[in-house]
Amino acid sequence: DLNYHFGYISRCMKSIYGRSPLEYLNHFRITQAEILLMKTDFPVYAIAEMVGFNHVSYFVSLFQQQTGTSPLKYRKAFIVKPKI
User: How far apart are CA 24 and CA 58, in angstroms?
Assistant: First the structure.
């Protein structure tokens, strides 16, 4: 327990990071999801769960809002196609 009121912590985070605590957490989670999408072949629903989202639809919505694309399109952009 920090013994600070949530409103105070929220205002401090907003002034320092430009985001509320929840916005900061969601941004961090989506950033971690981006890494997993690029470096693993885990399904989207598993990645959503790994980074802390209980509902894949909410994860996809926030992912699109933050990155401008869906998780699957994001992953496809990083797949290296072998040259023949």
Answer: 16
Q: Tell me the longest C-alpha to C-alpha distance in the chain.
A: 62
Q: pLDDT tens across 4-24, in order?
A: 898 999 999 999 999 999 999
> Would you say the C-alpha torsion 43, 48, 54, 55 has a positive or negative sign?
negative
pTM of the model: 0.85
Task: Note whether 35 and 27 are within 8 A (CB).
Answer: no
Q: What's the Cα-to-Cα distance from 40 to each of 16, 36, 46, 81, rounded to whole Å?
A: 33, 5, 11, 15
